[in-house]
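I am writing to request your help with a piece of structural work I have in hand. Thank you for your consideration; the sequence and its tokens are set out here:
=====
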Amino acid sequence: MYDPSMRVLTVLELLQSRERMSGAELCRRLEVSSRTVQRYVARLQDLGIPVEGTRGVGGAYRLKPGFRLPPLMFSADEALSLALGLRALRLLGLQALTPAAARASAKLARTLPRALSERVQAIQDAVQLDVSPWVVAADAALLGGLLEAMESGQVVAFGYTSRPGPSGAVASEREVEVYGTVHLYDHWYAVGRCRTRRAVRSFRLDRMTGLSVQDATYTRPPDFDALAYLHSSMPSALGGYETQLHLHAPPEVVRPQLGSWGVTLSALPAGGTRLQARRERLEPFAAGLLGLDCPLTVIGPPELRAVFARLAKRGARAASPLAGIMPT
């Protein structure tokens, strides 16, 4: 119930299940202000749904008597797209939404005709989605708050901790006009104009704390491309290490093994594949690369070579016949 659109649908669902609901009760159920509830109701009315309201003490909302939404109709492709999309939330680091996704899947199953529901369930049971080992879990409530503030054009304030540098990590307080959110290389980012720095900046969600929505408003640039900005600002925006390796196998051989790793592969003129990726933590990245079925050469950075050297020593100890034997 974090997405603003889902909250609007939740208001409709609540009004369909009750004869009337007070504004205070809707605020409590949705955990939002009365002003926000009024905005949701106005959105429903704009969509042609007859929501009636009474003002004053004891004021409440209700659907016009006799109004009922027609049943939702989905084609087989539409139903499958919805079902798989709900399951794929974990791939984006949104594991916190798994219970909500399960409830939505159950509602979808109840909506579909029996034959189509059974077909979709059979396909779901046959599909497995593996989560990248480097995906960073995102705070779904934080993401929802950013999207809601962006939709209403309200400035947000939050605490932000920059990536560690020569002098360590730096904590600061920011006020930002959010222009867009992006999932890139296993992280979620908010991109917008930082009023504190007076320039467009990007912020990783896992480094943000204490989000609050301000009364100040702004107008989002209509053609702003958050993803393009993030790409153009690399590598400074992403942080971590820029790695490059030579894989001694053609791209078509290694690409299936690296499909969900968030890496860039390109064929080398002399044969083999150039692998480029940005990583904050080198050790799990190096350990994963050792599982590839081909030789590899580290081009850079030096820190990655050092990690491989440590892993080699650790592997040699593990391979020793005496490894694991406890001294008496």
